[in-house]
Amino acid sequence: MKLLKTRRNRVLLFSLSLVSLAGLGAAAEKNPQSVLVTIRSILAANQSDEFDAKLKGMEQQLKSLKYRSYRSLKDDSKTVPWQGTQSFEIPGGRILSVAPQEYQNNRISLKVRLTENDKPVVDTTVRIPNKGNFILGGPPHEGGALVLSISAATN
Amino acid sequence: MTNCDTIREKIGSWLDGELNAHDSESVRAHLLDCGACADARRQLEKLNLTLNEQLNAEAAPVDFPAFWRAVQQRIEQKRSWHEVWLERWRELASAPKIAWSVPALIALVLAWFSIESFLPGWRAAPRNNFAAVESIDAHGRSVALLRENETKTTVIWLYQDQEGDNETAEDETKSGPAF
Q1: Which residues constitute the domain of residue B19?
Q2: Are residues B107 and B138 in the same domain?
Q3: pLDDT score, position B167
Q4: Rg (CA), chain B
Q5: Are A116 and A138 a contacting pair, CB within 8 Å?
Q6: Do B138 and B175 fall within a single domain?
């Protein structure tokens, strides 16, 4: 090959290959295709000292709420595309709508709306670490308070 | 191979005194009896003489003692550490080698910014695991924001308004948890 005959050409060609490869790597950084959103509905109350075994992984997080008992009511997971919205049925006739907005620095931005009888209860936008969660709680339910653990992980 | 051929092969060594006593004697005896081999000896001696004269004529102007002194001096001279480093640096900094480092540096910088796509979370995760609340609208309700340090948990807590919502709330939920 004529192009590879001189040392300078070989160096230039190698340099171009390196830069192209690095450029390809940089281009590979993009939003994952969708987000797996998981909603755990929990009843927090003070009528007993029961702690649901299903909630063992969340024990420390829930203990900060200072209720005496915690019971798992429902777990629901759905895959949601970016800019798409998924609705989750929450005990008490409530609906939680989750819309992933963007993914940046390993954080997922989620737009969350809780409605009750078609009336909005809360609208919030929260940026959570990938595979992390946050807690939305407070709505009254069965003599206690409803606690929602909202987690998201990129697919 | 005849005896003469063998003897002629040894004449050069014989003239240089490199043969053992037995061979030397046999060559000497043969040269006394064989006119052809004696001619070969004379030719060889003549050639040696000519070569020596030529070599001496060429080497005479060369100042060998000074030359060897200079070689000896270079061998004995110890270079200082900065001369050694300077020489190494010159080798490294030669143009083709510098040319390699430029794209390598660019590749490293781009790799730093693109590594997140290959190893998600390696950079951002250890810094701050809290969820960040960017906006919140509780539609007139009271709301509390809690950040629990031990588990790095962010909690958004909604309080019932005074009129209450559709569900019958007990006193404890009206006041909310004791954070």
Answers
A1: 3-59
A2: no
A3: 46
A4: 50
A5: no
A6: yes
Dump pLDDT digits (tens) for B80-119: 788 888 888 887 777 666 777 778 888 888 888 777 666 6
Chain B touched by A128 (CB under 8 Å): yes
Domain count, chain B: 3
Give the H or E element holding residue B169.
Answer: none
Q: What share of chain A is helix, strand, coil (3-state, %, to 5)?
A: 25, 55, 25
Place of tokens 């070599």: B55
Residues A95 and A59 in one domain: yes
Q: What is the DSSP string of B65-124?
A: HHHHHHHHHHHHPPPPHHHHHHHHHHHHTSHHHHHHHHHHHHHHHHHHHHHHHHSTTTTT
Q: What's the token pair of residue A134?
A: 């946050």
Mean pLDDT of B29-50: 93
Residue B104 burial (CB count, 10 A): 15
Residue A25 sits in the same domain as residue A42 = no
Residue A7, classified by CB atoms within 10 Å of its CB into exposed (0-12), middle (13-18) or buried (19+), is exposed
Beta-sheet strand order (sheet of A132-141): A69-81, A34-45, A144-154, A132-141, B153-159, B142-148
- Judged by a CB distance cut-off of 8 A, whether residue A106 touches chain B is yes
Distance from A88 to chain B by nearest Cα, in Å?
A: 18
Residue B174 has pLDDT above 60, yes or no: no
**Residue to test with chain B: of A20, A105, A115, A149, most B Cβ within 10 A:** A105
Co-location of A38 and A23 in the same domain: no
